[in-house]
Amino acid sequence: MTPVNPCQPSPCGPNSECRAVGDSPSCTCLAEMIGSPPNCRPECISNSECSSNLACIRQKCQNPCIGACGANAECRVVSHTPMCICTVGYTGDPFTQCLQVQQDVPREPLSPCVPSPCGANAICREQNGAGSCTCMEDHFGNPYEGCRPECVVNSDCPSNRACVRNKCQDPCPGTCGQNAQCQVVNHLPSCTCDDGFQGDPFRFCAIQQREPIQQYVNPC
């Protein structure tokens, strides 16, 4: 006699597998199926079979947020459906990409002195919304064209003055030594010893030593 296969036909029902164990059938559910034969079934067929924070994906209740949102976006599940929103400080399509919000940087009010309308050696001050130019201290000239110091070289000064630190000044103070007099000749100090004195007038003049006059003595 031909042996009888207890799994033909299968007594296990749908989504199950039958194995012959001796002369009896042994039924088990297929992989990823739940329940027990003959009532094997997938975990879900529709979303309603899953909890509200999961969705039925490939017959399994899974998190629908995985891979649903774009960069810089957050996902929330509402009634089995993924909802994507851009994170705080970002904007755009949350399902594609969210970009950082560009905040307008407050601009400083324009200054009429930047760039300066003044010439060289001049100072700009805002006055009634316009730039007002004045020469720097100890400088002269048209501040809108350029200011200059009182002098740059000696020839800018009278002949009895010298250009000292950009100002026409008497070059004599502190130049000559003791007991000497100073005169300015063509902007330069010239020192001479006082009458009755001799020596280096730029350092020190000493009293001139006079030889004693010998009186004539009559030998008679």
Question: How does this model look, in words?
Answer:
It comes from Aedes albopictus. This is Putative dumpy. This protein is rod-shaped. The protein contains no helices and 20 strands. 0% of the residues lie in helices and 40% in strands. With 220 residues, it is mainly beta. The strands form ten sheets. Strands 1-2 form a two-stranded antiparallel ribbon. Strands 3-4 form a two-stranded antiparallel sheet. It has a two-stranded antiparallel sheet with strand order 5-6. Among the domains are: 47-100, Laminin (Ribbon), CATH 2.10.25; 112-149; 154-207, Ribbon (Laminin). The protein has strands at 16-21, 24-29, 33-34, 41-42, 55-57, 60-62, 73-78, 81-86, 90-93, 97-100, 122-127, 130-135, 139-142, 146-149, 162-164, 167-169, 180-185, 188-193, 197-200, 204-207.
Q: Reading side by side through the largest sheet, how are the strands ordered?
A: 1-2
Choose one word for the global shape.
Answer: rod-shaped
- Number of DSSP E strands: 20
Radius of gyration: 56 Å
Helix content: under 10%
The largest β sheet comes out as: 2 strands, antiparallel
CATH topology of the domain at 47-100, what is it called? Laminin
Low-confidence segments: none
Query: Which CATH architecture of the domain at 47-100 would you pick?
Result: Ribbon
Let me know the average pLDDT: 88
Specify the number of helices: 0
What is the element string, with H for helices and E for strands? EEEEEEEEEEEEEEEEEEEE
- CATH class of the domain at 47-100 equals Mainly Beta
What is the terminal separation in angstroms?
199 Å
Domain EGF-like: 3-41
Keywords: EGF-like domain
Protein name: Putative dumpy
